[in-house]
Design goal:
heterodimer, A: mainly alpha, two-stranded antiparallel sheet, 10 helices, flat, B: alpha/beta, Rossmann fold, 3 domains, six-stranded mixed β-sheet, 19 strands, about 35% helix
Chain lengths: ~270, ~525
């Protein structure tokens, strides 16, 4: 997909996840981001596990490092550096912080999986051609490197190596570096053989955005506007006591995020088909 | 006729190399010719193709003497980037030459480098993809394409640039038989219909030998022979016959006067009645896979595959690109867990992957072989003895102190196998062991795997090289779309004229070179009587 509408959409969700304060609005941003990631092509398991794992970790750790909140629900033994008095406010804040992590991680992952990498790099190339090519090669070599790492591990495992031990696994780093150097040399040779560096390259013209993606851009802009308007108005506080989340601004922001998100999802799914 | 490529007494030595890779090469390729470049691995074929595109010395360094003129450009004065507008090189490993993420953009990459107008880029890229039958791949990611599809994209990327000279370095080494046949037919079509000059280095000669206008044989960096295919067949019959197509080899070894270059000619010249082929060998399976399934994300690689690997026998595992052969082998070796089904193993299993470089984990050849024994906890004295024996068995004893990455491709392959067989596995699985290997080394490898089977090991060889499979294997298992079609069938499958038929099988009805030679000799005796 074209990077422009997706970029605006994912950036709005990222900013919304991080900057909005109403828990319902943050949850809406996280839900839309996660749904977008699920609608993207595989592999996406690693992103989902990373987002969910980090969110759970933040939720579990926050009550023990936060010292705020006036509604205690459990008090434990005194442990240095840890706050063992758990408050309702700390739990809610930790939960929302986890949602923020899910929203931001999924928004970035959805952009990576849904956007056309070559077109993103072509866009960067208009500003910094050399950097774009280096980034292109990096992104091209990463999956190859991943394949080589898997091949080395398989070759070690078939020879009875137990790679869950730290030292044997580290021993594969040297061969992997050697292999990646060989790969990069071959790639550089192939690029030279196809005229890279011969002279000024063609500047790829900006491709027209198809109708469906123009609609996605409009939805993304609406979402970005809604988030931009809501951030200064949404003054929800978690400490010392939780505010009532059912405010007009909070509900309107949530509704706007969900409506724009649902429309974007329909357009993204249709575009992929 | 003007020349597309000219070498004038060219010698070239890579930096730090002991001997020159090209030694006094004088060669002229005329416009529109199709030239087949033959020679054993390491004889200088790749260096010659690199020199044609000025990659040596401009990219690789080293010392070059003499003169190479490619499409009227002297490579001493012009860099590869300038020559790229007139000549294109397709490398052996497609994975290492694809630059962009998507196939469509890959084809456009070279045109962008040449500074073509955007509208022209789109038209030429689409036409090039259509010419290689890969239009449907334009939006696919390069990393998700099969080896054959990647090779097509690589050729389209070169074709799009509209060069008049196409250089191909073993383009079929990773393709299944049908894909290889299609690719070579495409190369021939490009040459015949478009008048593009083609120089192709290839080890699997059965399809292209008769199609070439000229055959150039290289020996240790020199041109050993240059002539028509029929002349080359007569020249090579007395010496390096293994460079010839299998049918020609068989007739040469039987001392027949007429040497066929194709299956059609061999049928005309050969005996009318082939010998009955041996029945499949029986025996206990050392590994049994029942209803095995496996998925990679959305891709279903295996769908309820059931097969086994018989002890003391070599089984060839055949199938098109993406049929699920490697996944099946990895599951059999215990390296991948199946999603469904049951696997029973009896003893140790070893797997040698397609890329022998993945087996280079240590700094010395002997340490590499000792690695598995260290992991198994074998005591040092016994380890030394077993390492020495294994190095001797694979002819690597004189290389014990060398770094594995400094070995030739054939030596690396043997080291990769030795590093696994030292464990004395009851099942050894070799994944595409003949990739980039010349005919002589393939025959040696076939003998080696048969020897391992004689020692009691069950050996399974995944290969696209049907002539190698015919030489090495007593059993044949075939796969398609994640399913096993024929489970441990006899060699007759390689001679029935179907998808998996080797050249000797189609021509003479027998599968090994020895059987073909015996058949031809008997036929001659009968004719004499």
């Amino acid at each position: 997909m074209s990077p422009l509408p997706l970029g605006v959409l994912c950036a709005a969700l990222l900013v919304g996840s991080v900057s909005l304060s109403n828990p319902f609005a943050v949850a809406a941003c996280a839900a839309v981001s996660a749904a977008l990631l699920v609608a993207s092509p595989p592999p996406r398991g690693a992103y989902i596990w990373f987002a969910a794992g980090s969110a759970v970790l933040v939720f579990l750790v926050n009550p023990f490092v936060g010292v705020q909140g006036l509604t205690p629900i459990w008090s434990g033994p005194q442990i240095p550096l840890l706050d063992t008095e758990i408050t309702q406010e700390e739990l809610v804040f930790g939960f929302v912080a986890g949602l923020r992590l899910i929203g931001s991680a999924c928004a970035v992952a959805a952009f990576v999986r849904l956007s056309d990498g070559d077109r993103v790099l072509a866009a960067v190339a208009r500003v910094a051609p050399r950097s774009a090519m280096i980034a292109a090669l990096g992104s091209r070599l990463l999956p190859t490197l991943e394949g080589d790492a898997a091949g080395l591990m398989m070759a070690a495992r078939t020879r009875a190596a137990r790679l869950n031990r730290r030292r044997p696994a580290a021993a594969l780093a040297g061969p992997l570096v050697a292999l990646s150097l060989e790969r990069s040399l071959s790639l550089a040779e192939a690029m030279e053989a196809r005229g890279y560096g011969a002279g000024p390259r063609t500047r790829t013209p900006v491709q027209p955005i198809p109708a469906r993606q123009r609609a996605l851009l409009a939805v993304a802009v609406l979402l970005a506007l809604a988030v931009a308007v809501a951030i200064p108005l949404d003054g929800y506080r978690y400490y010392d006591l939780l505010d009532d989340p059912l405010t007009a601004v909070g509900l309107a922001t949530t509704a706007a995020v969900l409506a724009c998100g649902a429309a974007a999802l329909v357009l993204v799914r249709g575009g992929r088909r | 006729m003007s020349s597309a490529l000219r070498f004038e007494d060219v010698s070239y030595r890579y930096p730090d190399a002991a001997r020159p890779s090209l030694d006094g090469i004088t060669l002229e390729v005329a416009e529109g010719e199709l030239v087949l470049l033959l020679g054993e691995s390491g004889c200088g074929k790749t260096s010659l193709l690199r020199a044609a595109l000025a990659l040596v010395p401009h990219f690789h360094g080293g010392e070059l003497s003499g003169r190479v003129v490619t499409a009227d450009l002297d490579t001493r004065e012009h860099r590869p980037t300038e020559i790229a507008a007139r000549a294109g090189l397709v490398f052996q490993d497609p994975e290492s030459q694809l630059v962009m993420r998507r196939a469509g953009h890959e084809v456009e990459f070279g045109l962008e480098n040449l500074g073509c107008p955007p509208i022209e880029i789109e038209t030429r890229a689409a036409a090039a993809l259509a010419a290689v039958g890969a239009s449907h791949l334009a939006d696919r990611e390069n990393g998700q394409l099969s080896g054959g599809e990647q090779q097509r994209v690589a050729i389209a990327s070169v074709l799009a640039m509209g060069q008049r000279l196409l250089l191909l370095d073993e383009p079929t080494s990773q393709l299944d038989p049908v894909a290889a046949e299609e690719l070579l037919a495409l190369v021939t079509r490009i040459n015949r219909d478009r008048g593009v000059t083609v120089v192709v280095a290839e080890h699997r000669t059965s399809r292209i030998f008769a199609e070439a206008d000229r055959v150039v044989v290289m020996e240790a960096g020199r041109i050993g022979f240059d002539g028509t295919p029929a002349e080359a067949a007569r020249h090579l019959a007395g010496g390096a016959a293994w460079l010839l197509p299998p049918v020609t080899q068989a007739f040469a070894a039987a001392h027949r006067e007429q040497l066929p270059l194709t299956v059609r000619d061999a049928r005309r010249l050969g005996p009318p009645q082939p010998e009955p082929l041996p029945q499949p060998v029986g025996g206990r399976a050392v590994a049994m896979l029942t209803g095995v399934g496996h998925r990679y994300g959305e891709l279903e690689a295996l769908r309820g595959a059931t097969t086994g690997f018989t002890g003391a026998a070599v089984t060839a595992l055949l199938g098109e690109n993406g049929a699920g052969k490697s996944t099946l082998a990895r599951i059999a070796a215990g390296l991948v867990e199946p999603s469904t089904g049951r696997v029973e193993r009896d003893g140790l299993c070893g797997y040698v992957s397609q890329n022998p470089a993945h087996h280079a984990l240590r700094e010395r050849v002997d340490d590499e072989v000792a690695y598995a024994l260290e992991n198994l906890g074998v005591d040092p004295a016994q380890r030394r003895v077993r390492v020495r024996d294994e190095l001797e068995r694979f002819g690597l004893d004189s290389l014990a102190g060398r770094h594995p990455r400094d070995l030739s491709s054939g030596e690396r392959q043997r080291l990769a196998i030795a590093s696994v067989t030292v464990m004395r596995p009851s099942l050894l699985l070799l994944d595409e062991p003949t990739r980039g290997m010349d005919g002589l080394r393939k025959l040696a490898l076939a003998e080696l795997v048969r020897g391992l089977a004689v020692d009691g090991c069950a050996v399974a060889v995944i290969t696209h090289d049907l002539d190698f499979a015919a030489e090495a294997a007593a059993l044949v298992t075939t796969m398609a779309r994640g399913r096993v079609l024929a489970d441990r069938a006899g060699p007759a499958l390689l001679a029935d004229g179907g998808f998996f038929s080797c050249q000797l099988g189609m021509a003479l009805g027998c599968v090994t070179l020895a059987d073909a030679v015996a058949l031809l000799r008997r036929d001659r005796e009968v004719a004499r009587v």
